[in-house]
Amino acid sequence: MKKPVKIIFSVVLSVAMVLSLALTAYGASSLTSDFAVTVENGKVFDENGDLYTGWYIKNRHKYYAENGRRARGWKKIGKQYYYFAADYAMAKNKIVGSKSKGYYYVDKSGARVTSNEIKMAVDFVMKNSNPASRQRNRLKQCFDALRKYPYVGKSDTPPGASQLPSYARYMFTRQCGDCYYYGITMAYIARVLGYDSRAAMGAVTAWGPAHPLSPHGWCEVRVDSGWKMIDCSMQNGHPDANLFFVGRDRYPYRLRCDKTYALNINNGKVSWR
C-alpha cells in the first residue's frame, strides 16, 4: 500500500508546484478564488471576515484589493503596473489609460509594457484609428495609415530577430521603409490591438511562373486557429488586390515563406522568436 501513497503525494506535490509557478507568472504571490472572498458595500473580506489584501478572481475576472479596498486605475503591485477598469476588473491584452495620463498596452498577464517600440505602436494606433471601432476595423485603419508612408528600398537581406525592434523604430520615426519595415511595424501595431502577431520573411512575385521571386517581408496575425496575412508593401503596388487579412492559400501572388518571427510579450517583457 506504500507505493500508491507515494505516487499520490508526488502527483499532489507536482500539481501544487505547477499552480505556484502559474500564480507567480500571473503577477501574484497568492490568488484567491470566488469562494474565499466576499464583497460587501464595496469592501472585500476574506473567509474570516477580515479586510482582504491580495489578488482574487470573481466570475473569471481578476481583481486586486488592499485592506479591503478594490484597486481602480493604475496600481503598482510588486515590480509591475496593472490597470483596473471602472468595474475594478484587471485589464489585459489591450490599450488602456487616458489622454491626460497617457495610453499604454497591457499584456496578457495584465502588466504594463513600456518598451519604446510598443509605446510607439500605441501612439500610432491612438492617432490613426477610432477607439470606438471594433478590433479588426481599427487594424484596417492602421493598415491604411501605415501604407501612406513611402516605400524606400533598404536591403534585400531579411533581418534577424535582434534587428526587428530597430526596424519598427525606424518606420515609426522616419515614416518610410521597405517591405520588411512595413511587416515588422504592422506586427507591433497588431499586437497592441490584441492580436497574436508575427513577421514573415520569404519571397514573392506578381508576375508569371517564369519570373523569379523577389525577397519579401510581411505581417501575419492569428485569427482563431489560423494566420492571416497583412501585406502593406504589395498592397501599395497592387491597390486592386485584397492583401489585408488574407490566408496564404488565398494570397493572389506566388509566395514563399522561409522564416517567421513571433512577437512575444509576457510580464511586460518583449522578445522575438
From TrEMBL:
Keyword Transcription regulation: no
Signal peptide: 1-27
Pfam families from the UniProt entry: Choline_bind_3, Transglut_core
Alphabetical keyword list: Repeat, Signal
Highest taxon of the lineage: Bacteria
Domain annotation Transglutaminase-like: ranges: 134-231
Name of the protein in its database record: Glucan-binding repeat
